[in-house]
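Milestone 3.1: sequence recovery, worked example.
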């Protein structure tokens, strides 16, 4: 199943509706909290690719497995993955091979039986799929705050057809050129650095649970706590915060620079980012749910 390269976009009206939805603040909070709770820092992998590229890397690998596989001819091979990474400008061929080797050693991919040893086919393991289900479940909980039908998507994660279709739906939009960070380039300050987005989410979660998200006014800031929580250096955190200040996203204050506030530009960027993520997830999951429920209904239908 080859995907078209036609551009995919989200209508601005859809983003506007999400941002004024009464459940949007709660959805943002759930999404941010789940990202923080599930964050895992792998120093070995981070030495090869950035976190953002690593996340895309596994989705591309799953796409090759699910969308291009034919009976007796697995679609995920080292060569195919190298070609795709170069085509999408994710990484070099050498870094791709290194990533696959490390992920195989970690039990995320395994060699698949194949008579042609030149092709080196791989398959994703249950460990990798379980990690994705673990991340998708709270994302669908967040989505359910603004799109009621999304509440059924969590249960659908037990359906292999739903997973297969979801992966393909996620991937073809990315392959067609859609990038959420292109819509909010100012957040590249965080997205392009290790632990950057979860640090930003942590700052946005600092306010009271029933209050606005991101919070209004100054909130306590501990660079040491952020560095320790996300296994990065103090300098790494401080550099991001200084860059965000210089770009008008955040401002530090307090007697010892131990407070931080979101500026209107930062609030706008975070809301726009999450609204686009929700719209992207909704488009992909709704199609996957349609396919899986249609298949289940066809199986259950009585034979005439």
């Amino acid at each position: 199943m080859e995907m078209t390269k036609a551009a995919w976009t989200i209508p601005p009206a859809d983003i506007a509706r999400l941002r004024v939805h009464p459940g949007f603040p709660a959805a943002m909070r759930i999404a941010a909290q789940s990202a923080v709770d599930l964050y895992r820092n792998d120093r070995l992998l981070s030495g090869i690719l950035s976190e953002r590229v690593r996340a895309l890397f596994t989705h591309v690998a799953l796409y090759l497995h699910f969308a291009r596989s034919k009976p007796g001819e697995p679609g995920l091979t080292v060569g195919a993955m190298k070609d795709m990474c170069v085509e999408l400008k994710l990484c070099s061929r050498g870094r791709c091979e290194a990533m696959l080797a490390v992920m195989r050693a970690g039990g995320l991919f395994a060699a698949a039986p194949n008579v042609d040893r030149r092709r080196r086919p791989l398959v994703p393991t249950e460990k990798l799929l379980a990690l994705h289900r673990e991340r998708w479940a709270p994302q669908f909980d967040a989505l359910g705050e603004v799109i009621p039908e999304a509440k059924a998507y969590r249960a659908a994660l037990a359906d292999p057809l739903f997973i297969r279709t979801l992966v393909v739906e996620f991937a073809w939009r990315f392959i067609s050129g859609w990038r959420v960070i292109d819509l909010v380039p100012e957040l590249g300050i965080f997205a392009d650095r290790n632990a950057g987005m979860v640090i930003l989410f942590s700052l946005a979660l600092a306010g009271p649970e029933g209050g606005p998200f991101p919070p209004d006014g100054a909130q306590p800031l501990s660079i040491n706590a952020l560095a320790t929580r996300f296994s990065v250096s103090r300098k790494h955190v401080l550099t991001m915060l200084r860059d965000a200040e210089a770009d008008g996203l955040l401002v530090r204050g307090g007697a010892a620079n131990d407070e931080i506030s979101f500026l209107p530009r930062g609030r706008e960027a975070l809301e726009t980012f999450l609204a686009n993520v929700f719209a992207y997830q909704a488009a992909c999951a709704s199609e996957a749910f349609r396919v899986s429920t249609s298949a289940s209904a066809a199986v259950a239908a009585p034979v005439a």
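The chain has 15 helices and five strands. The mean pLDDT is 88.
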